[in-house]
Amino acid sequence: MVTAGQEVKTKHTNIIHVTFFAHACHRISEEVRSHFPDVDQLISNVKKVFVKSPSSVSSFKKQCPGVPVPPSAMGFLIGNVQCSYCDNFAYLQKVIKSFNSDDAV
To answer: Where does the source fall among the domains of life (predicted)?
Structure first.
C-alpha cells in the first residue's frame, strides 16, 4: 500500500497518504476484480508480456505509433487501467498476434 501511495503521489503532489483510505480503496478494487475475472486475467497476461520485455515494448511502439503502451494495473485505480485496455484492445490484439509463439517461454 505504501508503494501504491507513492505512485499516486507522483501524479497528485498534494495528496496525503492515509493508510485506512488506501486500504479501503484496495479492498474495493479487489471486490471489483473478483466480479470480472476475464478482465483481470487479460490485464495480468498483458502485463507479463510487456513489463519485463523491452523487445515487446519496442515492437508495440513500432507497430502502433502514438498509442500508449499498456499500463500495469495498480489495484485501486479502478477504471483508468481498464479503460485504457478497452480503448486500445484492437492494438493489443494486433501486436500480440504478431509475436512468434515459438519465442514464448
So the answer is: Eukaryota
Candidates 48, 47, 2, 43; CA nearest to 26 is 2
CA–CA separation, 61 and 71 (whole Å): 13
For residue 66, the SS3 value is coil
- Whether 88 and 70 have beta carbons less than 8 Å apart is answered as yes
- Per the structure block, which three cell numbers stand in for 1? 500500500
C-alpha cell at 19: 493508510
**Among positive and negative, which fits the CA dihedral 20, 11, 55, 44?**
positive
- Given the C-alpha cell 513500432, which residue does it identify? 62
C-alpha cell at 94: 494486433
What is the pTM assigned to this prediction?
A: 0.60
CA distance 53 to 11: 25
